[in-house]
Structures are given as structure tokens and as C-alpha cells.
Amino acid sequence: MKDETRSFYVRAVRDAVTHVVANLDRALDLERLARKAALSPLHFHRIFRGMVGETPLELHRRLRLERAAGQLRGSNTAVTTIAFSAGYDSHEAFTRAFRTFYGCSPSEFRQSRELEQTDCGRPRQTEIAAKSGIHFAGDGAAEVPFQFIQGGTNMDVNIKQMKALRVAVVHHVGAYSRISEAFGRLGDLAGRASLLDAKPTMLALYHDDPETTPESELRSDAGIVVPENATLPAGLAERRLPAGRYACTMHIGPYEQLGDTWSRLMGQWLTGSAERLAESPSFEIYLNTPADVPKAELRTELYMPLAPTTG
């Protein structure tokens, strides 16, 4: 069962990588990739990043830059033409991105060809460091040799049987980094309704994949767990989290690093286990807040829904 589960995720991610490599001249349809993998866009994003070390869009952009670097070294094609081929709208945008990865401008990179003709010249490297070992090696490559990132199986993960939860939430639309605004509104509304007196569990749900959804349209919920008999005031909506099996791990540290832990949990631990994802949402439970402790001591539990066991 464990091998079958890993094979499912390995095949889905390998197929996606092959699609990315074969379509460098096209915009990525990330939702289509997720559907083909039979996963939600958000779950697919986290699994792919955990297994490959970068998101599909980051991989696509990096391979385009590696191809552009090869064109600069091996041809006299105009830099602007190469920039457009790499997916950039302007010479300036291409130059900024290129300099970030190669430490020089495209023109400087091209000029370095003259130095390579000397006895001590060392060719400039076109490959950008990547944990997966996936690099541009010519258009139309059918097989993509690479290795999946390992190590997530060493995570401290507990499988819990959770009861159904009734959650009072404030909806947030916009950058996930600004969900604190929704928590502020939640605290005000819940406090005036005496829903904070018993120090309820505080959690958040994130519904969209940042790579496939514009930042201004990202949906998330700031919430607290409330009793069944609690009356919710105007401004608070109700969400139900289903009972079931969940994989739980602890993230200790800044919220900005939560994405890395999610990627390890879903892209490494899950794919190395015998478990499969369930369709219910994942969520985070906050055991303390920045008002209580320094960022390095923040403790956040990550809950990932698992399919029921068979047999």
C-alpha cells in the first residue's frame, strides 16, 4: 500500500514536470495540471513544491532563464528577442530577473564569451542550482532525469482521529500575509459576543493556490472553534470541519516559514507514507500568538485530512 501511494504521487508530479519542460513557450495552466493529478490546486502546489523543491511556476521560470542563458552564449539573437521568448514583457524586467540568478546583466553574460577563449577561461554556467537536478537540456526532451527531495519521513507527525468542529469565521479576501486583519475583526466581534471567555481554539483555513489565483482574489478564513449552542453575532459566519483522520505536525517559528513546513508534510511525509489525502480542507491551529511570544517561539499545528483506512 505504501509503495502504491508513493507511486501515485510520484507519477502525478513526474507527469507535471514533463509537461512543464515540454511547454516552455506556453503559459502554464496550473489548474489543469492539478486536475490531471486529481488534486486541488492548493494541495497539488504543496506536494509538488515538497517533492521538487520549487513550485511549477518557479520551475517554468527557471528553465526559461537557463534556456535564455544558453541562447546568450551560443547565438547572436537580440537580447530583447530572448527576453520575450523567456516570458518577459520588457528588456528591463528580463535584466532584473537575469541579474538575480546570474549576478550580471544579459549583455555582460554574452560578453564573457570572449574570456572563455583564453587558456584560463572557465565557461559561465547556464544552469541555476536546483535541489531536483532538473535543468534545461534542449527543447522536446521526453525524459527528465531528476530526484525527489527526501527527508520528510523524519518529521514528527501524529495521525489523529478528530471530532467535527464548528468554527466561527471572518472571511478574508486578499494576500494571505494580511489575514491578521481578519483575525483583528474576529477578535472584536467574538469578544463583544463573549465567545473568547473560554479561550477557544484559534485556527485558519486557506482555500486557494497562490500560483493559480490572483493575490487580490485569494480566499481564507480566520476562525475560532465554538460550541454547538453558541449564537454567532452578525459579521461571523459558520464553517464545519468534518470529523476524520488527520495528519498533524508542529511548526515552531515564524508564520512566514509555514509554507516550507506544509511542503515537507505534503510533498515528503505524505508521499513517503501509505496515506492518501481526503477532500476536506487542511487547516492551521495557533497555540500562541505574536502578542504572547517572540516569532521564533510561535507554535502552530498543521492538520492535513487523510482518506479513511480500508479493510
At a glance:
The chain is an alpha+beta fold.
Q: Whole-number radius of gyration? A: 23 Å
Quaternary state reads: single chain
Shape: elongated
Question: On the 0-100 scale, what is the average pLDDT?
Answer: 89
How is the CATH topology of the largest domain named? Multidrug-efflux Transporter 1 Regulator Bmrr, Chain A
What does this structure look like?
With 311 residues, the protein is α+β, with helices and mostly antiparallel strands. It has two domains: 2-117, Homeodomain-like (Arc Repressor Mutant, subunit A, Orthogonal Bundle); 157-306, Multidrug-efflux Transporter 1 Regulator Bmrr, Chain A, CATH 3.20.80.10. It has helices at 2-22, 30-36, 41-52, 56-74, 79-85, 91-102, 106-111, 179-192, 258-269, and strands at 157-162, 165-173, 202-206, 219-225, 237-241, 244-252, 283-286, 299-306. Strands 1-6-8-7-3-4-2-5 form an eight-stranded antiparallel β-sheet, with helices on one face.
